[in-house]
Amino acid sequence: MLAATSDGVSSKSLHMEGKAIDVRLEGLPLDRLRDLALARAAGGVGYYPELGFRAPRRRSRAQLVGLGRGDCGMPSAFWQATGLLVVSNVFMTFAWYAHLKELNDKPWYFAALVSWGIALVEYLFMVPANRIGFTVMSLPQLKILQEVITLIVFVPFLVFFMRQGLKLDYLWAALCIVGAVYFVFRSS
Asked: Which residues does 68 contact at the CB level (< 8 Å), separation at least 6?
């Protein structure tokens, strides 16, 4: 009915499917409203300042990151979060395990203080990574991504820094994690 009685409304609009609305709030600037809608991380946001409104769109996060049936591809926020998580996990891995090789002859509290300092640097990358990632992924998706990155970082650390070998059982465990990635990112 809206498409038939109004100008400029497409019959294929998300508005017609009940998946989008136009919003304007008296006294709230449009750019602030857009930022608040994006911070909710519950879907996309159409921003039309020339028309004076925003159009929040309700889509699954899988569609937004392009891992489900969506066709919008991976947003830059996904890649930013992934890159920051890689850097964060390098520091985390050294904070958690390097003391076993390098500080083994020192008291445990000295190793804990050194690890704490390294972990602080890790958090300087991890906190922004999680905040950015949460704008395009659900919390379970973000957690599984972080775990996969942890293992990708850990394998070279294990082989090259700790000088320990890999076992076939590690491959099987990694395949289980790949399964977790599939299930958490597939469209529902």
From this structure: 60, 62, 185, 186, 187
Q: Are 46 and 55 in contact (CB under 8 A)?
A: yes
Q: How far apart are the first and last CA of the chain?
A: 30
- Burial grade of 35 (CB within 10 A; 0-12, 13-18, 19 or more): exposed
* Torsion sign over Cα 133, 134, 138, 142: positive
State percent of the chain over pLDDT 70. 65
CA dihedral of 118, 123, 129, 130, whole degrees rounded to 10: 140
From 125, 121, 76, 75, select the one nearest 94 (Cα to Cα). 121
pLDDT over 90, % of the chain: 38
Is the pLDDT confidence value at 43 over 90?
Answer: no
User: CB neighbours (10 Å) of residue 65?
Assistant: 22
Write out the E strands in the chain.
Answer: 44-48, 53-57
